[in-house]
Write a structure and sequence with these properties.
The complex is a heterodimer of chains A (156) and B (279). Helix content of chain A is 92%, strand content 0%. By secondary structure, chain A is mainly α. The radius of gyration of chain A is 61 Å and the shape is rod-shaped. Chain A starts with 5 loop residues before the first helix and ends with a helix. Helices cover 71% and strands 4% of the residues of chain B. Chain B is built from 9 helices and 3 strands; from the N terminus they run H-E-E-H-E-H-H-H-H-H-H-H. Chain B starts with 7 loop residues before the first helix and ends with a helix. Classes of the chains: A mainly alpha (156), B mainly alpha (279).
Chain lengths: 156, 279
Amino acid sequence: MNFNATIIGQSIAFLVFVWFTMKFVWPPIMNALTERREKIAEGLAAADRGKHEQALGQKKATETIQEAKQQAAEIISRAEKRAVEIVEESKHTAREEGERLIVAAQAQIEQEVNRAREDLRGRVVEIATAGAGRILKRELDATANDDLIQDLVARI
Amino acid sequence: MANAPETSAGYIKHHLTNLTYGQTDRGWGFAENADEAAQMGFWAINVDSMLFSVGLGVLFLWAFRMAAKTATSDSPGGWQNFVEWIVEFIDTSVRGSFSGKNAMIGPLALTIFVWVFLMNFMDLLAVDHVPYLASLLGVEYLKIVPTTDPNITFGLSLSVFVLVLYYSVKFKGVGGFFGELAFQPFPKFMAPINLILEGVTLIAKPVSLALRLFGNMYAGEMIFILIALMYSGGIAMGLFGGVLQLGWAIFHILIITLQAFIFMTLTVVYLDMACQEHH
């Protein structure tokens, strides 16, 4: 155990090592640590922001759904009202149409009746004429029954 | 062992002798025994201490540089994680005891802590193995724990002391530093007494710093050597020694870490005191 120049050698080695650590070891590692700390802080802040935004989105979504529901209800009620209206309207038009058809049918019937009557009248004249002809043939005296035939024709 | 003396005293003395290179009676060369090493005077060098301390220091720098080179702020790999853990630990304790801002304190503390820890760690290797291997290679003496060599611990603490003096003068000026030594704790007219008191306090810092580490490691090494002596005392003694060695080694893990930490913390505290204006 003697003191000798080892002290000097050790001191030099020590100072060189400290210099090396200070230059090449400490700064990169501390930089990495600081950077990671910042990254983590940023990440946490981003997570917070995300959470906040999510809450906002949730609220907005709820509001939108509420609104949509309300609108849907409104539309349905309007549609129901409209349906009732349409039904009423169609009932009304149907009734009108029916009446119109009835009127037209009646008119047609009347026309038919009139035509049949005319027809019948013509036929009756023919028949009466034929009948009168036969009677005249038998009686020969056509003029004697002329008044009678005239009267018959007028009566039809 | 090849050339080891057979007596217990010789064994212990052999284990406590450094491999010293210096001027012998035969010219420059390695000392052949402890007395010759002592006679070499100041201009000799403990080759084993230097070799192991510088080797461990280079190992530390290489390993940490590996992590620093690839350091990323994304998720770190295993080694980077470990290095970051140590660096953060050092940084936290430096912030705790050093009030100023100085780019050198952190790296200084890191170097001291890891380097001293590694040098202390050599104590946990079995006391005989490496010296035995060395003796096979023809190296007579080899102490593998650099911190059991006071030259090493004083080399560290005196470097720290120089830094303390430098920062004291830098922050307080020569006058301020002198004033701190001469004008307290007693009034100015008792300056000589103050100087003696404060001078002792000042000198005690590096001396206690070095001797604390040296003493602890030297005592621990000595106990390992004494336990190793039991192996030559028969099977029963050998087994008992084995148990003791295991227990002491486990306890020693605590000591080597603690001593490294104390050395680092006191260095930071001394430098803090040097950088602070005195109130």
